[in-house]
## 1
Amino acid sequence: MSSEAAPERRFISGNEAVAWGVRLCRPQVIAAYPITPQTTAVEKLAEFIEKHELECEYVNVESEHSAMAAVMGAAMLGCRTFTASSSQGLLYMCEMLHYVSGSRFPIVMMNANRTVAAPWNIYGDHRDSMAMRDAGWIQLYVENVQEALDMMIQAYKMAEHPQVQTPVMVCLDGFVLTHTYEVISIPTQQEVDGWLPPYSPSENVLDLNAPKSLCISVSPEWQTEFRFQQQEAMEAAKAIIPIVDTEFAACFGRGHGGLIEEYRCDDAEYVLVAMGSVVGTSRLVVDQLRDEGLKVGLVKVRFFRPFPKQEFAALAARVKGVGVIDREVSFGYEGALYTEVKAALVSGAGNPVTINFVAGLSGRDITKENIATMYRKVIASAGGETEPEMQFAGLRWEPW
Amino acid sequence: MLEIRWHGRGGQGGFTAARLLGMAASLYKNYYVQAFPSFGPERRGAPVLGFTRIDDKPIHDHSKVYSCDYVVVLDESLMKVVAAWEGLKPDGVMLINSARDPASFQAAPHHRVYTVDADGIVQAVLKQPVTNTAMFGALVAVSGLVSLEAALRAVELTLPPEICEPNKQVVATTYDLLKGQAVPA
Amino acid sequence: MVKLHDLPEQELLYGHKACPGCAATIIARLILKVTGERTFLAYPASCLSTVTSIYPQMAFSVPSFTSPFAATGAVLSGMAAAVKAKKMQNVTVLGIAGDGGTADIGLQSLSGAVERGHKILYVCYDNEAYMNTGIQRSSLTPFGAATTTSPAVGCAGSIGEKKFKKNLFEIMMAHRIAYCATANPAYLPDFLNKVEKAKNTDGPSFLHVFAPCPTGWGFPSDQTLAIGRLAVETGLWFLAEYENGKARLTMMPRQFKPVQAYLGGQKRFKHLTEQEWAIIAAQRDREWAEMKDKWGRPSKNQVKG
Amino acid sequence: MSKPTTVVFHYPTDKTEMPEGPYAIAGVLVETNAGWRSVRPIIADDKCVQCDKCWLICPDGAIDRIEKSYTVDYDFCKGCGLCACECPTKAIRMIGEGEAE
């Protein structure tokens, strides 16, 4: 079925799209441990390898911690690598995430966003990856299946960029994206080979001819300087991310934006900020409310790290109200995305009202009605009505 | 946008039917499509759902399906245990795998109800009680959403090669059976 | 067979900051003489990482990496997969970890790596406690040893560690590993031959090496190998290997010296009385009876004590 | 003899001189261990039988074997005394650093 001649239109799930995206990047070592809802992505990759459609070593590790450790071992020897996880698995990997970013290996992983026990639940929210906020990884959230595939390919380009050398985590909403089938375009191997050259590692690699010690111990006298490098790499990534997308669009005919994507924000007075699959549903609500004459817009946060601070600072001057949808909550404070957005808004001119909507926890649907209500609450709040700053959307005993 | 809900039991291929329709629609008129199962661990025999969304514009909606243009029930016994009519639009279509007369199912006045004895057909052709392709063929006939050709091509592209031919035969059979009954949408 | 005189002059571990008389560094240095320059080395957080690789003083001359404490086996798996993916020939993927990094926090990762059959050489240098963090008890700390978390404080029944150490050699055998052995740097030809066998094994290999620690055990720094010899002579350390699915003892003392000959020379055991000596000797006799029963007598070309 | 020697290490003075990530060139020594020692081994060549034992077991690799003779690298010898203890012919004795001056 795969054609070398032209991009192929296919009806596949988000996880299969991830597998295709990874396959086209020709990784040399993959290590993964199963967890719902990530599994069908790595199963597909194992199948590609078994069918000799992808030349790659697949390591069936015994834990997520080992999955990341194994791909790190391979990355040390200069291999392009991939792993994937979710939820408890991502948290079990936590130590390794820091290890990899601090060691500066450009590993790419997929996270199927799922909540974290307890209570036990296999469905989607952003609690897992948000808990990994400070692990030093570039974190991006996709909206649909096509973007999932495209961002796998872009992820390697960003991670391996000489000024970045930082691992990338591509986040897909569990089930809603991982298990949903959509019609997408799969680029040809030739196109991807032309756009993404084979990985040529930096000096930071184990080489028999030029022996080095990697991931060494560093005394307090030097640790700060290595940490400064990580921050500089993230800052560099802010500029490189939109360039990579522009180059991708020039080659493949579609792009997805920079750190954020604005939807109908040009003259918007009230905006919602969201990440992941709920962005798509929110677009429909924006259209609907615009038809009613309301000046609403939508900001899709594509990258949570590096965070689009300047973009929100610029937005602050233009809008009267900002609502932020968080699919997790930092207990004792507020949603993590809200905290970041609010802080970034303050750094700009203007003083929009802000409301945090905690919604879509553990697979709870965020309906179009929920989203419309959020807009109306932001508008009301900007008009002087009292609204709690932080609200759980759609609690069973508080119908929206 | 059209929304279709498929009722089956774990192992009956209800979600495959949802995908077959999506695949056929994407082939037929380059429609935009989405298909997804009722999320979660699948247990053989337990009632499960599949959903198909079809539109001529890109589908951005990632919320659940709350109202349906079509409901397809792969297993008649489910009619007693699930809320099959829930969310079916007033002019919506209900299609049930049953040897009984459509009138024997209590429907709201505007609902159009079709039945097809998929069990009997697949028993003869597939020799096993998997009714997803039979109900897919029947839906293609009553809805006119896609052509029979697109439906058969979708089977070829979705199912393993070794079971393609008998399933195409099943699709064509139920399609022919219901074609005459179809009311233009 | 390794010819000791033919080992290369080249020092691949040099200028480290280990305590004087450290057996772990004797072991690591000699292993690298056998595996040579074409070695990719991973070592977890341990004395070995602390004394060899603090920026910018790098005591290893082979490509090396400080691996996560819990994941040396997995890191080696990834390195071995990369060696295969890159079709590299004639290289050793070597891990050297302590008893805690191997038998406690690293055991799952090691088990996975061995079970999957990667071509790796994993060495556990066993100094019988967490020395790098200040001598805390591990699952390989022997009965009666005082550590900072199994202290002997002088009140009744406070004898230090109250359990016998677990049998890592048998754990590895249960994996049907391609090759594994116990060794002791006080028995150099036996030790280095086992290293060479492990290096040449097509599959996973594991060495459990006795590593007396002057600082943690409390003995003079010139006694490291003398203590190592006494451990074998008293029957408190056994020398064995497992290959082709069969285990055998590579040395069997004809008669054991009294356990106090070994215990008496170390501060960590100084609180023990005849009562504990007897318990230790009885356990030793039970274990040896079992080993002889299961694995038979050493073959005739092996050393007899 | 093939082993690292101490070098004058150029520490980065600017961010552009930093390695890209926490790695370092293997086998680079910036300081010796001579200061650790209060006693030092002295090898009596007339008693030495060239058995290699001291060269093999030195934890620091601080005994150089050149042809058939052995010399101690006092830059890296920590004075543990293991060589003296293990020497089968007692050709090595430990003397105080003061005595050596």
## 2
Amino acid sequence: MRVFEEILLLCLIICAVSVAFTKDLLTSIVIFMSYSLIMCVIWVLLQSPDLAITEAAVGAGVTSILFFVMLKKIRAIRKEDGHEQDEK
Amino acid sequence: MGPNLFINYGEAVAMLLFGIGFGNLLLQSNLIKKIIGLNIMDTAVYLFLAEKGYIAGRVAPIVADGVQDMEAYINPIPSGLVLTGIVVSVSVSALMLALTIRLYRRYHTLDLDEISRQLKKEGL
Amino acid sequence: MSRMKNNYENSRFMRFKRWVDGETDLLLNTMEIVPAKEPAAGEREEASKDSFGEKDGKNPPVFSEGRGLLYFRRFYQAVSVLLCCGIILVLLWTVAYLPSFGNAGNPDNNEVSARYIEQGLQETGAVNIVTGMILDYRAFDTFGESCVLFIASCCVMILLMVDDAILKKQEAMSDRRFEPKNDAILQGTALVLTPIIFIFGIYIILNGHLSPGGGFSGGAIMGAGLILYTSAFGFHKTQRFFDEHIYKIAKITALCMYGLIGTYFYVTGANGIENHIPLGIPGHILSSGIILPINFCVGLEVACTMYAFYALFRRGGL
Amino acid sequence: MDFVQNFPCFSVILCLFAGILSSGLKDKAAMRVNTCLLGIVTLLSGATLLYTLQTGQSFVYVMGKFPAPWGNEIRAGVLEALTALFFCVIMLLSLLGGRHKLLEEVESGKTYLYYVLTDLLLSSLLALVYTNDMFTAYVFVEINTISACGLIMIRQNGRTIEAAVRYMIMSLLGSGLLLLGLCMLYDLTGHLLMSNMKESVARLAATGQYEIPLIVAIVLISVGICIKSALFPFHAWLPDAYGYSTVSSAAILSSLVSKGYIFLLIKIIYRVIGFDIYGDTRIIDVLFAFGLMGMIFGSLSAIKENDVRRMIAYSSVAQIGYIYMGFGMGTEAGMTASVFHILSHAATKSLLFIAAIGLTDVSGGSRKFIELTGAGYRNKWAGAAFTVGSLSMVGMPLFSGFISKLLFAQAAVQNHVKMLPALIVLGVSTILNAIYFMKTVIRIYTPVGYSAYPSITFVKMRVYAVTLVAFILLNVILGISSQPVVDMIRQGLAMFS
């Protein structure tokens, strides 16, 4: 169990570092989502199921959805402006 | 150096993550990455707390079979605090994301340095 | 006429006068304005690589950026890196001296957690000690926490709410312009999943005092269900049972109920008046005093808020 | 138990309720609810103050039926009640003074949200003042941060939103550090309640166990709060946030929000860590140094500034430097001076912001100094108020600023090591203050032959003028009869330990 936990902690660090160095925003958001899920498993290992269920629903679920929606919104704004430019 | 660095490896990882998140928040000029850095920082603190609440060989604090002995369960307080913290951090990130959308609509970039340059050009 | 100077414009008094007039800066005056410089090549590359707005190549950023600002940025980055490394080192050094991990003799395992564990079931009626602790022993904190969520939703409303009906229509159209409408697979899956998600969310809320979970996680799950339904079927379908009016009523009712229960609990407790909320039999659904109704209120509020975030982000209105 | 002891709890809960209910009301109704609320809370705080003065001791109120180390608690003494009363009064006056601008600058359908935000901001300030529990403090710090961000960005132009983002980033850094420090402190002591924490910290400090983590935790908490209250090197967000937001927000932010955090720090110093233990660490020297630097650099930036609101904002940086300098003295007298300065600065800075808006209004909305020429004649009330505020800031006798500078000087004389730098910087900073404030006052009273802008009459802005008069009175009262207030502060600080 201890080895498993160590591997997960290592994964956390890898995720956190790779978020910083990813160029694509969508990729970094997906990496952040996986970071939250790993955190969730670690909390199960640390005997805190309350946290795990909340993190899974709030951290990995709703926060990621909000990130995606925001990215989509920004793309929509960009495309809108692009169209306006074309018309001119 | 103190004696407990390798025993407290979980806490050490939490501190590393805190530093990484802190660095992201300071160094990234892209707003979305700043927000992710912020979230990493927050979760690192929560990881630290949860690690501190854990006691080897005990189970989650949900009373089972009527056993109400302190020796049986882990410390419930850190879990409660983290539960509060998670909700705080989701509200903060929602607010930051909304601010980002507004800024993007106005300045068409996510780069904070770029935005301040544009502001300077406006000369307001 | 020796006192007459030809550089009167630059004399101290004149500079002082101009400063009083607010035309120039007293101290900045001496500084020459550095002529416009091309930003360093490396930096521009960097800027165009990861910022979104510049990717599409319109308005390439050519700014008259003084050398001072560039140096300042370099300096800032170097200092930030040093600061982060310093913080990490200090914190690791601290961790080395902290109480050891997983040890039952640590200072945080004291009489406080002992009472929560040993008497929590009798005093709060909750089998899940964490829920009992946050909703009963430390009820005030948790009320504050729901207010954090509430105020965040208010701020998002300030930022993204679009009042004008015409604008609303436009936004709704532009948002879905680039994706297929009425996707059969998505709708079919959503039709099956949404009820299950809802039931699961309600289960978690109602069992908050018996098993892991509670108002926050259950509410978030229900909010996620609403979001799934909306993204599959569009806002019009959702608005038939959940529009802005209902959102407001639900949110205010939930928070006020929570506040009233909480206030009753605080005031009776502090003044030594007997509390008339029965604790029930531990382990049953209808037990544990104020925890069940509070969980219900919190769940409702969280579900509404999560959906409101989504809807406001997506189209600027509920 | 006396019924009055319920009042602190009632005032926090009432604010939360008012905020929640206002979110379902129309603009006008929300405004009325807000004004009523402020009136009621002022009365409640006043009653609490009288009660604590009468009984001469502080009381603890248990939120719920569980006693000390298990449940939440709030605590009220003379200092808490005084600060709460003062905060309510200032907030009421700031909102009244900026109401006409609010209607112009905020989208019409969203004004009610402004009042929701202020209600919750007030609740968080009161909770920060009254709380006796570290985690409650953290939760309400977050409410404070978010609602302050809302107050900044409610006037939605690019400038304010950018300022809000910068504010949020700095604030969240601060909250992160604060939370981490708090978790470490919890880990070392096993308590979250201030009084129990203090016992444990005293025990730890006596035995020398966990010495390094304790110091690091104290440092983290202090730095977190310093970042949030815009101490000198962390003030980058401040001028934009104060300079471009709507005027009530600027007044509230500068006079209340940062002061709420500082009050929390005072509480932590006295009630969690212990004044002596805090004084033994070298943190107070660092605070002292940064306070002095803030006093100088804030004033210099203010002198360079060409925009009247940003100038006042930079002056806030200098004033926060004064407060931290008082902390840094490490004596009771320094702390008293700091607390008095919190009150006096709150009264003066909001007066300046409110008066400045009156002056810029009669100058075509421009905030550049050149346009303000003669504005004092066009809007007599605002001109007079601005003059009073400036004189108070500079430290003229009769006004509140004089007393706080006097107290700082007295405190400095008592501390032999820090006397020289403190006195020198105090003098220099006073001169710098005089330079930029007097420059403005001279400018607004420079006569102009012909003005393109019409002057304003009393009838047009009755509420505004009354607010200004109230502010001036507050300042003069604090300046003339300062002794009772100083006594109350001393008594309150004594109750802390």
